[in-house]
């Protein structure tokens, strides 16, 4: 490698890498020179390099000391050059750390991991989802994409924030969408329902274009956009308005039922679980399997057969191989 090639490679390195390389070169040079000038005081090149690092970093153990005038002059040059370089490196590294933390909070740092969950949209539902996920799946990495937030303190929220539009391929690449395990898109409460659904569908198209396999769960607010969301590539479409309207109806015409808030709390304190049908329960009626699961305080509410949900099926329905059992359990 000639000097021009070295310069080309050197100046293409990041600032911290260049500075670290400079320190290494300076320590090697001074360590080698002091060994040649005072071989009795510094028997090996390694001893000279050790002295150069200790002196240049201003630690000064005193185990190796130059005695000749030439050696002391080398020491003075080392303190003036190497000491300054090391001090500058430490200051620059500290500034880089502070900047990196700020960039994390501001959503400017790309995510490099895999098998993570990507949330699109920041709202109360997202906060609750993050809280529940971290409570029960502590090792799960969560990536948040949002264009309305200015920053998210990563010390306060255990997530990796990416600021930007989820319909933009560059933003999706920063979230490493190609290696995500699943994606959840929540409706933007700051827009009207139609605008919120249009954004959700566009984001679904963009995500599906970058990852053909990842499961995408979306929240759609208007009925006429459900089919469009499915065409766009959504695997699961949730209609929260229908669910809330149903609860409101039952609350409106309740007799002595519990308050509406209590119903919501009851649902919040339970979660759905999926189980493959055990071999010993194959060809058994639904009622029998329900009773078996209830012994373990699991409420069997339905099955998934051939990707079709069957909630509260008939008691005599025979369960077959590859059926997925859906249960409701306490957190």
Automatic annotation (TrEMBL):
Protein name: Potassium channel protein
Main localization, broad class: membrane
InterPro entries per record: K_chnl_dom (IPR013099), NAD(P)-bd_dom_sf (IPR036291), RCK_N (IPR003148), Trk_Ktr_HKT_K-transport (IPR050721)
SUPFAM superfamilies attached to this UniProt entry: NAD(P)-binding Rossmann-fold domains, Voltage-gated potassium channels
Organism field: Ornithinibacillus caprae
Transmembrane segments: 15-37, 49-67, 74-96
Keywords assigned by UniProt, alphabetized: Ion channel, Ion transport, Membrane, Transmembrane, Transmembrane helix, Transport
A cellular component term, taken from the record's GO annotations: plasma membrane
